[in-house]
Amino acid sequence: MTTPRPGLRERKKQATRAALREAALRLAVERGPDQVRVEDIAEAAGVSPRTYNNYFVSREQAIVSAVTADREARIAAAVAARPSGVRLADAVTEAVVEQYTNTGEREHKALLLITTTTALRKAFLDTTAGIEPPLTAVIAERLDDPGAHTARVLAASVAAAVRIALEDWLRPSGNAEAVRNLDAVGLVVPSGSLPDRLRAALSPLAPAFDAAERRTQP
Questions:
Q1: pLDDT digits (tens, 9 = 90+) for 45-79
Q2: How far apart are CA 140 and CA 206, in angstroms?
Q3: Residues 6 or more apart from 121 whose CB is under 8 A from it?
Q4: 55 φ/ψ angles, rounded to the nearest 5 degrees
Q5: What are the pLDDT digits (tens) for 110-160?
Q6: Are the beta carbons of 189 and 115 closer than 8 angstroms?
Q7: What is the rounded distance in angstroms from the CA atom of residue 25 to the CA atom of residue 17?
Q8: How many CB atoms lie within 10 A of CB 187?
Q9: Cα dist. 48→84, 133, 148 in Å?
């Protein structure tokens, strides 16, 4: 599947979005997320608050975007790049695990903020819904599903499974009183192995992927 190169206008929009999310993360690391205003982010990126609102609905969404930017498209691209002989369930699982766990220094800084701020955790979890559209297109092509009904159901199930895995990973551990106290102040210690949690959450979907693939075989 070939993706056309974006035009000048789209490239400018992409550059503005990138500048906003980079400014949001930098200011959040320097000051703390609660001390960053939308106006501050816009000024640091060299745009107006009105322009900011064309790209993000909140400061939390902009900060989280520093770690989640283009992840949904990268997951779909990774699935599309897998050889046709690779089981579709395996291709999807490995693409998700790879894109959620291979992080650089910038992503580590963002994740530290996310795991210690309740509003950022919620915004982070909400981004999983974005997996569905690009993954639907890739699965539909792989399954030769022109109506994309099966592909959409499978992609939506993947998005839901990823959210469940992340919720479990970000959930505070300890006794009930400690959990209440931690949640009240927004302190969360990621629990267990994220790759293992992602694979466990996605594994129940494998039979559905296998059945869909069998229907496309001659």
A1: 999 999 999 999 999 999 998 888 788 889 999 99
A2: 16
A3: 114, 115, 170, 186, 188
A4: -115, -40
A5: 777 888 888 899 999 999 999 999 999 999 999 988 788 999 999 999 999
A6: yes
A7: 12
A8: 14
A9: 47, 30, 40
| Burial of 35: CB neighbours in 10 Å, binned 0-12, 13-18, 19+ | exposed
* pLDDT one-digit tens code per residue, 9-40: 888 988 999 999 999 999 998 998 999 999 99
Question: What is the residue type of 74?
Answer: R
Give counts: helices (H), strands (E), the chain.
13, 0
Is the separation of the CB atoms in 16 and 45 below 8 Å?
yes
Q: Give the per-residue pLDDT at 173.
A: 56
CA dist 175 → 97, 181, 198, 218 (Å): 29, 10, 24, 55
Alpha-carbon span 71 to 54, nearest angstrom: 20
Measure the CA–CA gap between 156 and 130, rounded to whole angstroms.
9
Give dist(CA 152, CA 200) in Å, integer. Answer: 21
pLDDT at 179: 40
Instruction: Provide CB contacts within 8 A for 31, sequence distance 6+.
Output: none
Long-range contact set of residues 148-152: C-beta below 8 Å, sequence gap at least 24: 150/212
